[in-house]
Specification:
Mean pLDDT: 90
Largest sheet: 6 strands, parallel
Radius of gyration: 21 Å
CATH class of the largest domain: Alpha Beta
Distance between the termini: 28 Å
CATH architecture of the largest domain: 3-Layer(aba) Sandwich
CATH superfamily of the largest domain: Glycogen Phosphorylase B
Oligomer: single chain
Number of strands: 12
Strand content: 5-15%
Shape: globular
Number of domains: 2
Helix content: 40-55%
Number of helices: 14
């Protein structure tokens, strides 16, 4: 089924409640389709796929970025006009869809994205007397809630439940008098090829989008230090965004070799990139619970990362990864080189991370938590 177009199939009616207490909970997942490639869209699609196989949950996707019919799609190519017509189509689909659900599950980022995407879903859900779940996923939460407190905090109080992916955000929300619960992101382990890297090759992977908060430039500077000691080292860079040209310029100015920009990579193609590399490098300044780190765990890549946001909640230094201070390319490079000097440490880290992933970050571990929340909320619908 197409998940990126506002079609009759997408907005087809959810099934009516059958008699009895064992009826499936009817959920509308409101968030970005894969046309906006990022962590939110990937997690939403994974949830939708799992729910479609679950007899206890009847779920449909309502994209915040619907494609307009062919005759009107030209409007989505015009700056500013695109935002207006897409918002109109999105709100119209909310008014049509929400009436027949039990739970509105709204994915959320920060700032204007919060205003344009989850806030309308919260308001329409309340208008129709539905249970509303706000699934906030941005590492920029503290700054967002500080700067936009006058709007964000009262709006979030309208949600019946706030769910976040990490204990880090639970703590952030508590600072603003908002109660949240944590349900982890999960990965499809069966899609990722696990490889034991008994002897590391100097092939490094970065797959964060090219935005300032992810600070891919720090990874590039760290790789320059690595390549001075390991001239044959390679860096695979997957991602896209406004900093693409500046990153390419940085690679050139540092005189780096063997740096491969792969561009925007479809989630279905990411397993092959994990398998191609032997060390995962991650250097954000702001983050929450990056799925890419958990996928690296699952694929057997030792992880070297900065300690931004919620990362210390999923990476334990010298147990499941190596962790350094933010924006410290010298420390990032030194930690990566340490893996090659201490192969036993590298193997132990990768093994422990894989085991933790299989215990905490798989569907079997989070499915019951989602169902419990939905069941509780559906009683208010």
């Amino acid at each position: 089924m197409a998940t990126t177009e506002l079609t009759k199939d997408m907005i087809s009616e959810l099934p009516a409640h059958p008699a009895g207490d064992t009826r499936p909970v009817r959920v509308v997942l409101v968030g970005p389709s894969l046309d906006i490639l990022g962590g939110q869209a990937v997690q939403l699609q994974r949830l939708l796929q799992r729910f479609n196989q679950d007899p206890d949950i009847a779920a449909v996707l309502l994209p915040v970025n619907p494609r307009l019919p062919a005759g009107l799609s030209v409007l989505q190519r015009i700056k500013f006009v695109r935002t207006i017509v897409t918002s109109i189509a999105y709100i119209a689909s909310l008014l049509w869809r929400v009436r027949r659900c039990d739970v509105v599950h709204a994915f959320s980022a920060s700032y204007w994205s919060f205003v344009l995407a989850p806030l309308p879903a919260i308001l329409v859900g309340r208008l129709f007397g539905k249970a509303v779940l706000l699934n906030y996923r941005s590492g920029e939460a503290e700054d967002h809630l500080t700067r936009w407190r006058w709007l964000a905090v009262p709006a979030m109080r309208l949600a019946h439940e706030i769910v976040v992916p990490s204990g880090y955000l639970v703590g952030v929300f508590a600072k603003f008098g908002l109660q949240a619960r944590s349900i982890f992101n999960f990965v499809d382990v069966e899609r990722l090829s696990y490889r034991e890297r008994s002897t590391l090759r100097p092939v490094f992977l970065s797959n964060r989008n090219f935005q300032s908060l992810y600070n891919v430039a720090c990874t590039v500077r760290a790789f320059a230090r690595i390549q001075r000691e390991m001239p044959e080292a390679r860096l695979i860079v997957a991602g896209f965004g406004p900093e693409r040209q500046s990153l390419e310029a940085l690679v050139g100015s540092l005189g780096l070799r063997h740096v491969e920009f792969r561009g925007r990579v479809n989630p279905a193609d990411m397993p092959s990139l994990y398998d191609e590399a032997d060390v995962y490098l991650n250097s954000p300044n702001i983050d929450n619970m990056p799925t890419s780190v958990i996928e690296a765990f699952a694929a057997g890549l030792p992880v070297v990362t900065t300690d931004a946001g919620g990362i210390p909640f999923i990476v334990t230094h010298e147990k499941t990864g190596l962790m350094v201070a933010r924006d410290d390319d010298a420390a990032l490079a030194a930690a990566a080189l340490r893996l090659f000097r201490e192969p036993a440490l590298s193997a132990a880290i990768a093994g422990a991370a894989r085991r933790e992933c299989l215990e905490r970050y798989v569907w079997q571990s989070v499915r019951s938590e989602w169902l419990r929340v939905y069941r509780s909320l559906s009683r208010t619908a």
